[in-house]
Design a protein that fits this description.
The chain has a six-stranded mixed beta sheet with strand order 1-5-4-2-3-6, with helices on both faces. Strands 16-21-20-19-18-17 form a six-stranded antiparallel beta sheet. Strands 8-7-9-10-11 form a five-stranded mixed beta sheet. The relative contact order is 0.10. It is of the alpha/beta class. A hairpin with a 6-residue loop joins strand 9 and strand 10. Helix 1 packs across helix 4, helix 10 packs parallel to helix 11 and helix 10 crosses helix 13. It has three domains: 156 residues, Alpha-D-Glucose-1,6-Bisphosphate, Chain A, domain 3; 211 residues, 3-Layer(aba) Sandwich (Alpha-D-Glucose-1,6-Bisphosphate, Chain A, domain 3), CATH 3.40.120.10; 89 residues, Alpha-D-phosphohexomutase, C-terminal domain (TATA-Binding Protein).
Length: 478
């Protein structure tokens, strides 16, 4: 493969097929060229996850950056993405590279890039990096200094980012009440980088933290992929029921996404979690400030914005849009439908560790369990129900057929799940607004060959009907 295309966070590929050491080095050279063109000099943080050979791909990246004259701060072990992002700020570094495919299937790995704020690089920057990647057959264009030499010359330095991150948490949240709350918390690490973090953070009190899927296992048993949604979380939720946990805290493969199970071992969808977090800051902590949301996430945030008189800024899907908007508006919270949430006072980046801690703090401050918190939220904004279908693209013909059908401008007479469509928005994908306030969104994934169909409605019985009509809309119904 000669073409490397950067999606939402960077580049992802299939290990040994197109995700090879040569192509990783090409990406690293492209990133080095991009930083040099910005006139940047200094350090770059490099980290990695627990996928197959990630530490070796990280070393290859460090060799190229060092070969281009940059000082590399290389993590000593697999490290959560939000910790790497915070390290950029804490160390005053130029940027970061994280070797991770996040929530992708086990066959994949990735090359994720971050800017000097620790946040996602905007689309124009990603395009500029991509344009700087040397051609596949130009080996001499890649400057590389072997790792042992780079270490000897001080151009690569191993470091431990954990102490600084843990110290930073102390200024964001009072952890002691959670430690002393006597909760039983089950953590599903999804075989990823979050393993052991919540146990260490909450140790020393009466709260008990139990962990599952905490070892390194690059094939991710009991799940198709380390994405914190059903059915991948089913085994963790079952463990929560067995242990009679007060909640299940879930993190994806690189611990930047957050999932939640309630006290009954039932999954709490990502839209409700986002609304709960915003409600927590507004109602419990008394904070005020803009909310940044992607087009694919919950309208409950708009209702909270009206109730608490805070602006809600809507962006395209992906933190490459959310992060710049958070910085621009000094947002209180930002997030997306995939379970990634970022917070003011921290880096403009998803943090599954901190999001779970805030949810636990919400429980402690109110004395309520997750299902009761949802009821408390619904009393404010009304009940909302969500569903999503992912359809794998079998080729360009399927994609073009779907796009052609979605581009039809006339929505007159269109109904979804028996509800009349009143508007269509094409900011990022195709969002159809219905007369009862519900919506359907169809969009093409920026990281995988998938069409995603999402809906949110106030009627639980309508979710599947709306999704099925969404499939018919793109010509994918059985």
């Amino acid at each position: 493969m000669t073409d490397i295309r950067f999606g939402t966070d960077g580049w992802r590929g299939r290990i040994a097929e197109n995700y090879t050491f040569h192509n990783v080095r090409r990406c690293a050279q492209g990133f080095a060229n991009y930083l040099r063109d910005q006139g940047a000099q200094g350090s770059v943080v490099v980290g990695y996850d627990r996928r197959f050979a990630s530490e070796h791909f990280a070393a290859a990246t460090a060799e190229v950056l060092a070969g281009n004259g940059f000082h590399v701060l290389l993590t000593q072990e697999a490290t959560p993405t939000p910790v790497i992002s915070y390290s950029v700020v804490e160390k005053g570094a130029l940027a970061a590279v994280n070797i991770t495919a996040s929530h992708n299937p086990p066959e994949d790995n990735g090359f994720k890039v971050r800017d000097s704020r620790g946040g996602a690089i905007p689309p124009a920057g990603l395009q500029a990096i991509e344009a700087q990647i040397p051609p596949a057959d130009t080996v001499e264009a890649i400057r590389r200094l072997p790792l042992d030499q780079a270490l000897d010359q001080g151009l690569v330095t191993y470091f431990d980012p954990k102490p600084a991150y843990l110290d930073h948490l102390q200024g964001l949240i009072d952890l002691d009440p959670i430690r002393q709350a006597g909760l039983r918390v089950l953590v599903d690490n999804m075989w990823g980088n979050g393993s052991g973090w919540l146990s260490q953070i909450l140790a020393g009190g009466t709260t008990q933290v139990l962990e599952v899927h905490g070892e390194r296992n690059p094939i991710f048993p009991e799940m198709a992929r380390p994405e914190p949604i059903p059915p991948n979380v089913d085994a963790g939720l079952a463990a929560g029921r067995r242990h009679r946990a007060d909640c299940v805290c879930i993190m994806d493969g690189d611990a930047d996404r957050c999932g939640l199970g309630d006290e009954h071992g039932q999954f709490v969808d990502q839209l409700r979690v986002f609304a709960l977090l915003a409600f927590y800051f507004l109602e419990i902590r008394g904070e005020r400030g803009p909310i940044v949301k992607t087009i694919s996430t919950t309208s409950m945030l708009n209702k909270l914005g009206e109730l608490y008189d805070v602006p809600v800024i809507e962006t395209g899907v992906g933190f490459k849009y959310v992060a710049p908007a958070m910085v621009e508006h000094n947002a209180m919270i930002g997030g997306e439908e995939s379970g990634g949430y970022a917070f003011r006072g921290h880096v403009p980046e998803r943090d599954g560790i901190l999001a779970n801690l805030y949810l636990l703090d919400f429980m402690v401050r109110t004395g309520k369990r997750p299902s009761q918190l949802i009821q408390m939220l619904f009393e404010k904004v009304g009940p909302h129900y969500y569903g999503r279908i992912d359809l794998r693209l079998t080729g360009n013909e399927m994609k073009e057929r779907a796009r052609e059908r979605l581009d039809r401008p006339d929505i007159h007479g269109l109904t979804l799940g028996g509800r009349r469509v009143v508007d269509r928005i094409t900011v990022d994908g195709y969002k159809f607004l219905m007369e009862d306030g519900g919506w359907l969104l169809v969009r093409f994934s920026g990281t995988e060959p998938l069409i995603r169909i999402y809906t949110e409605t106030t009627a639980p019985e309508a979710v599947q009907a709306i999704l099925e009509d969404g499939k018919r809309l793109i010509g994918a119904a059985a």
